[in-house]
Amino acid sequence: MKLKFLGTGTSQGVPVIGCTCEVCTSKNPKDSRLRSSVMVTTDESKKILIDCGPDFRQQMLAHKENTVDIALLTHEHNDHVIGLDDMRPLIFKTGNDMPLYCYSRVGNEVKKRFPYAFADERYPGAPAFELHEIENYPFTVLDTEITPVEVIHYKITVFGYKFNNLAYITDAGFISDTEKEKLKNLDVLILNCIRKFDPHPAHFILPDVIKLFEELKPKQLFLTHISHHLGLHDVEDKQLPSGIHLAYDGLEINF
Question: What is the pTM for the complete model shown?
Fold first, then answer.
């Protein structure tokens, strides 16, 4: 299997509109971060998208991705779902509703934000989604077992997803001991890390992530959902403890 980072930025992306800091004005493409999303390619070449934010169209074109077989949604915040309308060309091409897997709460929010996709009589140019409500239990789709990992993002529950010995978690500020058991001794763990300093009410910062790395002991840890406050990619990546890396848009991981 393969995971590709379509975006590794926070809800504002990097560069941030109007910001002139050294990260936002960097010429290094690794310092430009679209909103966080990944594409998982299965052993059978099926495409599993995790989150569909406002940069979805740009991400698909930039990374030469042409299909999505299913989408997993972590939660309902706009930087993770508001790009769903841009799935229309994929839906029109196959003639099938796009399967979305998520909490029932998230599914209800999708219905509110895209009511025209669920109308009894849909406009011919509207998208069409097939909602699959999931709970915190493993499920199999596209011949792939997927294990949800429930984390806390401020005051709401969010799903991360585990495939084989890789787990992807974004928008987390707390992981319970029960859920940590799913994350121990992985080959690859991907965690959100919004900045280096100053505790955040909803997201891990670098000291939190280093502590989790020492506790969970993955072979490799990649940081995502990164803001301009974390610093320049090429500077900060070299200063991280061995085994921890900054992800960047377009990075691919085989697992």
Answer: 0.98
